[in-house]
Amino acid sequence: MEVTAESVQANLDIIFVMICAAFVMLMHPGFALLEAGLVHFVASDCHGTQRRPPGLRRAYQMIAGRWGADLAKRLVSDNPRAVVQNRPLPEAERPEASEAS
Description:
101 residues, mainly alpha, 4 helices, 0% strand
């Protein structure tokens, strides 16, 4: 498969929609999509360090605290890296909330 600027942009457009949907659901008290194993990425809509700075540390900590550091790392770091490197994502597992939540 040849990687072109157009194919990368098309994939990024799709990923952006998925990220936005995932972020909205993470803000919802039910965390329904994440708990169903349907969230593959968590990202920031960062616009700079002053105006709309990234908030991934807080999202990572929230996910790690409730579902574990492995899931948080996969959603914030590993899965986005796999997409950029044109590698398949690992099969998603349904997270289980920790006893502390």
